[in-house]
Amino acid sequence: MMLASMTAKPVPSVEIAPSVLMPMLSFGITMQHSLFLALGGRGLDTAFDYGDKYQAELGRAVATSGLPRSAVFVTTKVPCCASSFVKDDVYSNHCHARRSPEETAADVAHDLSVLGMPFVDLLLMHWPCDSTADTVATWRVLERLALDGRARAIGVSNFNASAIESLLPHVKVRPAVNQCGFSVAGHSGIRYRNQTWGRDDATLAACRRHNITLMAYSPLGSAAPGGVPRVLSDTNVRAVAAAHNRTAAAVALRWLVQQGVPVVTQSDKKEHMVDDLEGVFSFELTDSEMARLAAIR
């Protein structure tokens, strides 16, 4: 039986596709999804490349939560191969060779099987392939699976502005979401592994132009130069946090959600989960504070 929720108010949501509401805060790669649900969280995020252990744990957390499946928003991702984006990524050693659309469909079937679910709420292409043609071929699979009821919405991840512009002329279903690393001090386009991975203001602008919801992973700066300590120790972040009697983490997350950017975060600590779920949505930054945080490089 699920523990009683400790969160007084539900996390706000955003409509990413017709009648598809995604929480503004989701919880990512971890083994603590049951605790997150018990504390009132409702958005869970995983991926084929995170491995079966994490996907199976997420599935068990939902199944044993006492919540109806419709109350939990589940996101998973599948790779687009071949891709030099992930050539050094420990999760993606299988992605050097071109993979067929049938293999992509098999990846989705594997995800659903491990999760123990007939569908997910959001299915993402984890990164673009090296060629537009291969990216489009993979996207066609996601479109078909959405029509078959395997995903309520589909989208992309790690697509920069140019990758979005290259894909859109070929789609029948517009991506609902683009999940990228984005944070205070981590939105300037500084290159990462020879790619921007969409971690820049130009990508946010492109998403807004095409009515695609940008979702931020690494929202506390782990994908930014200097990492999380760079963000949470910044004097400007700490000054704003002190002014609102909030944590630096809550301020960094608030800077995103106040722009309409949902976040996916993670922690093994209950107090961090509570701060994410309660502290982020209980105050508002001023325009000058938003600009102050945006200027951090």
Automatic annotation (TrEMBL):
Report whether Cell wall biogenesis/degradation shows up as a keyword of the record. Answer: no
Q: What is this protein called?
A: NADP-dependent oxidoreductase domain-containing protein
- What species was this sequence derived from? Emiliania huxleyi (strain CCMP1516)
Keyword NADP found? yes
Q: What InterPro entries is this protein classified in?
A: AKR (IPR020471), Aldo/ket_reductase_CS (IPR018170), NAD(P)_OxRdtase_dom_sf (IPR036812), NADP_OxRdtase_dom (IPR023210)
> What GO molecular functions are on record for this protein?
oxidoreductase activity, acting on the CH-OH group of donors, NAD or NADP as acceptor
Q: Which residues form the NADP-dependent oxidoreductase domain?
A: 36-296
Q: Which UniProt keywords apply?
A: NADP, Oxidoreductase
- Give a single Pfam family match: Aldo_ket_red
Family note = Belongs to the aldo/keto reductase family.
